[in-house]
Design goal:
Layout: H1 7-27, H2 32-52, H3 57-60, H4 75-88, H5 92-111, H6 124-145, H7 158-179, H8 213-216, E1 231-234, E2 238-241, H9 255-273, H10 275-287
Antiparallel strand pairs: 1-2
Helix pairs in contact: 1-6, 2-4, 2-6, 4-5, 5-6, 5-7, 9-10
Length: 288
């Protein structure tokens, strides 16, 4: 926990909230067209930086395997690429879901910047990391505060489905990159030392493999157990039986926890953000 008390960590968190106040103060009295243009330009700049990071030594030194870092490798990457399109979209549900996922992902990545605990915004990679995640957090929130974005209560039921959709994108991205040799394949089905920052492969933290019990308790056994008689092959042991061992079904394991946790939370959040729409929704339901 010492990482959360370092000067560099505190500075990066404080900067995020200072930027929030500055952006709100600068944009609040501007014309709507100006507000939208500024936010959209920042979203596209963030989009570009996601790919331009390949020019940094950390990434071009690991070419072509660093292409993984330019792909849909985690939820923040997915939403970085979706955010400018969501801003331009007239589809309310799509915009609401991307904005919410961007906000939560950006906030989480700044508060729990695992790969940046020893870095600051004063080095190039640190600046890029924090700029990108500041944008994910700030742009949806500022758009809401300066009244160029209004969420709809009707989107509450779409958010958990959108979470599954983004997890599926990451899973198929990883599978495809593994097939072409740009991402290591899993050593075996029970291997947890695998790319799991988006919890695609189960309710455990990537790197320390700690299963989150409050989530795991709602995962049906069927979704986390290898069927009896299923054999696996590796060069050391040949064919062996994995039947009965714990193995979370990618993406599918999250269905029940999302129903239990995210649906009620989504309902309350969108009710608070669009209480007028909430009342209108149930008024129409009662009439029908």
């Amino acid at each position: 926990m010492a990482e959360f008390t370092t000067a560099s960590y505190v500075i990066t968190v404080v900067v995020m909230f200072v930027l929030l106040i500055v952006m709100w103060a600068v944009l609040k009295d501007r014309k709507d067209s100006t507000k939208k243009t500024v936010l959209l330009v920042l979203a596209w700049l963030n989009f570009a930086l996601h790919f331009l990071k390949i020019l940094l030594p950390k990434y071009y030194g690991n070419w072509p395997y660093s292409l993984f870092n330019l792909s849909f490798d985690n939820l923040c990457s997915v939403n970085t690429m979706l955010l400018p399109f969501a801003m331009l979209s007239k589809k309310q549900g799509f915009k609401d879901c991307v904005f919410m996922m961007s906000f939560v992902g950006g906030l989480g990545a700044v508060f729990y910047a695992h790969d940046m605990f020893n870095a600051t915004i004063y080095i190039v990679e640190g600046f890029r990391y924090y700029f990108c995640h500041y944008c994910l957090f700030l742009l949806p929130l500022v758009a809401l505060l300066i009244h160029v974005y209004k969420p709809s209560f009707k989107s509450f039921w779409k958010l958990p489905l959108f979470v599954l959709f983004e997890m599926a994108i990451i899973f198929f991205n990883n599978a495809w990159l593994s097939e072409i040799g740009l991402l290591k394949m899993r050593v075996n089905l029970t291997d947890r030392d695998y790319v799991n920052s988006a919890f695609v492969y189960g309710p455990y933290f990537y790197r320390n493999e700690e299963v989150l019990g409050f989530i795991d308790i709602f995962v049906p056994k069927f979704f986390k157990t290898i069927p009896e008689g299923f054999t696996y092959y590796d060069t050391l042991r040949g064919f062996y039986d994995n039947g009965g061992l714990t193995h979370y079904w990618p993406v599918a394991w999250a269905i029940c926890p999302l129903i239990v946790y995210v649906y009620p939370l989504s309902f309350l959040i969108y009710m608070g953000l669009d209480f007028k729409g909430f009342k209108q929704f149930f008024r129409i339901k009662n009439r029908s």
